[in-house]
Amino acid sequence: MAERWATFGIDLHLDPSGPGLRRGLTDALREAVRSGRLAPGTRLPSSRSLAADLGIARNTVADAYADLIAEGWLTARQGSGTRVAPRAVPERPAAPTPRRTPGRLPYSLMPGTPDLASFPRAEWLRATRRALAAAPHDALGYGDPRGRPELREALAGYLSRVRGVRADPGHVVVCSGFSHGLQLLSEVLRARGARTLAVEPYGLDVHWDLVHRAGLKTVPLARDALGTRAQDPGDADAVLLNPAHQFPLGGALRPERRAAVVEWARRTGGLILEDDYDGEFRYDRQPVGALQDLDPGRVVHLGTASKSLAPGLRLGWMVVPPWLLPDVVDHGGGSTVSVVEQLALAEFLASGAYDRQVRAARLRYRRRRDALVKALADGAPHVRVTGIAAGLHAVLELPPGTEQSVQRSAVWQGLAVKGLDSFRHPGVTDPVGDALVVGYATPPDHAWNGTLDALLRSLP
Predict the structure, then answer these.
(1) Three-state SS for 332?
(2) 415 beta partners
(3) What CA–CA distance (Å, rounded) separates 297 from 278?
(4) Quick one: which of 248, 348, 267 has its CA closest to 308?
(5) SS3 of residue 57 by DSSP
(6) How does pLDDT run across 309-357, given as a tens digit for each residue?
(7) Is it the case that residue 209 has pLDDT exceeding 50?
(8) Which of 83, 77, 80 is nearest to 29 (CA)?
(9) Alpha-carbon span 452 to 369, nearest angstrom
(10) In sequence order, which residues have a C-beta less than 8 Å from that of residue 188 and are 6 or more positions away?
């Protein structure tokens, strides 16, 4: 005979214990009500359902219910079932008072974030629905550690068409953002015996810390008036570059330096990690193709949807040389990324919605950039703006010795903004100078004018 399980009411965890089954059940229910685990008004399972769940006689449950109704712990009314009686619930111990932290400032020009209010919610929802409707049942299993084949195929086509990447779908690995990809690659490099990763002199300390936790040392490359001197990473085992738009100072890696660093990798067996930062957002120059195209065997191309869509999606990708691919897969690959989000992005790419989103965002951010430049020209003409030919941020050069005071002034104006020195690698001994790194893509449209006004009031 098939077992009968509760089909009405709540699932109930009870541990009847004691000299008798009825008494044990009664005590367990009473304690659940007394402790507040069963809140006043909670409807309990029928005696038949609870008896089936516990594997005991229905009369035992009915008798326990009757005892607790008589004691006032439960109530029973025709058509309403058995419920926990109204009563004062004992107060839980007060949680420790959290340490007070400064409130969020009303305006933000922090770099690295797009305008989150512009995320295409309706289009993304439609893509998700279409992708789920068309997905085979096995798509919801564990699947290929490189990621869903639909997304890898869509990414290979897109990257080839738009960024000039030589990408076979079999060599694409889905990851949960750039940091995840960098972590995987750092672990793989360390496992293969690498010790040192050369990095650009300015960048993000969270990335350097991640590399350090994997067991690698980071050493900064030199810099001159033409940008990062990437052509000779010295004794490094690998090098991490932003060739399309060097962060945060701006500018693309010069052609002769691109060729030279690829030649270094061929000569030494080194590996180049290409962070395609802001590669899709350019305004006053022709698009710069991916460095990976010069030698797919020595370059790992990394990209994300963090700026084009939203960082909260946690969607990124790597195009990995065939000789390195097994090691990357063994270290986790795309196994951490939601299959539903992968399928949605694949549909977004295949339908052309991603191209439309990028073009619209490029136009919107160019207008933002132009408005920033004009506002500074009118209200702070002594401030020089650089690094604006591409990307989602600008560098505002300040008088020597004023970076810290301008940041303090910005806080007084309710503006969150970062100084250039916070992006300097600790190994750099000849800093560029005082400046602000202004993420003009960050504010929502309704806060844009107020944010600009706060910035102008902050400047010397």
Answers:
(1) coil
(2) 107
(3) 23
(4) 348
(5) coil
(6) 999 999 999 999 999 999 999 887 667 789 999 999 999 999 999 999 9
(7) yes
(8) 83
(9) 11
(10) 324, 327, 328, 331
